[in-house]
Amino acid sequence: MMTKYRIIGNMTGNSMDAIDLVLTDFDGSRMTDICNHTKPYSKDMQTKVEDLRRRVQEKNCAEITSDPFFWKVHDEYIRQVAACIEAMCQDNQIDKSTITAIGFHGKTLDHNPPSKARRDGSEPYTLQIGSGQMLADLTGIPVVYDFRSDLLMAGFDGAPLAPLHNAHIAMIEGDGCYYNGGNTSNFSIVIDGKAIIAADAGPCNEYIDAYIRRHTTELYDRDGRIGRCGRPDMSLLQYMFDCGRHYYEAPLPKSGDPAYYHTEQIFAEIAARNIKLEDAVRSFEYFAAYIAVYALTNLPNDISLPSSFILFGGGWKNPLVKEALTDLLAGNGYVLPEHQAAFHQLTASFKSAPQIRFSAFGDYMEARLFADMARYRLENKPWQLPETTAVGADIVCGRIAYPSAVSLVQYADAVNRAAKGWQSSFSQATPKKSVGSGNLPDGH
Fold first, then answer.
1. Is residue 193 a contact partner of residue 176, using CB atoms and an 8 Å limit?
2. Which single residue of 191, 213, 244, 291 could bond 202 by disulfide (Cβ 3.0 to 4.6 Å)?
3. How far is CA 123 from the centre of its chain?
4. pLDDT of 433 over the 50 cut
5. CA 219, 38, 132: angle at the middle one, nearest 5?
6. Count of CB atoms within 10 A of residue 228's CB?
7. pTM
């Protein structure tokens, strides 16, 4: 008999637009979303997180947690997530005692995956903040969290994490290329019910949202209204690609991070060229689709790209981004001269015209992903990704924090285990075949 679970999934992405929650019932292969909740970040909170992201660059765990500003932002962040969970339960008359757990991702502030570290000779690490213990104490619900550390400490990128969840959705919606449009876009190709390859592509909402927030009172380009008044600047398209060329041309699979996209450099170039707001936004929207398609041109020759594209994530809800994606997959739209042969080869490879649709599970896919991962951790099952299954590694991801009556001033698990400096913090890295949650016990 399969165990049934009722789990809250949480995601607060790199775009820092909102706290997203979804409550999902799991019963074997069946997934049923019960309710959801979204609370947009305030401008003040966005500014604090951006400031913290700048402060923690190049710092190790001890240095990060010695900064009082870190604790101010961290504690406010966790309290906001807890308050959203309370609001969702109250609004939907959900008895919290019926909830098995919360799947909590935390806030990513820095990411240097093994694939990149091997290229530049650095040490791999990933930084997510967010105490699962504090969230468990505030909500009274067990929290499963720190999913990426186990993968990274075992030598894997740990991003994107969605492929297995996409495969679970494909059991309902069918095979295809499952493409997420978040702050970073990423895809999973699911064939015969299995994710065979997955990778981050590049910026989707990163440039659009950051530029909109900086130059307007809006949080994003709602319905493409601003971009619709402009035209894409193709010389800017070339400049954006050149800025991120080292990342975009890296072989698949790979993991991305906003630090690779040179946002500030690009914004400074726009200011120097006096490019109009509307033209800059339209250029970002075109580039979001462009880089998503470009990533597919890097697929290994032995992988055939399916013609069915299943979209999820807020980025594709911008009609200009989706229109550009549709045009480029159909062999239309502007392509940089250096990429014309690759784009032509890609579009010619389709056995039938690309069919693009939104997933019925798309609105809260990233939040539900962590509910799904929490379910696997509760069952002590490995979260199988194409990069781990290729070498036969079984990695059980995450830690579990149970509610405690003890309230701490500072929580020891506020920073994930694989933050910068983890190599010297532990006597040995997690082996490539592992069971459990790594080198630290559950809780605090």
1. no
2. 291
3. 21
4. no
5. 110
6. 14
7. 0.89
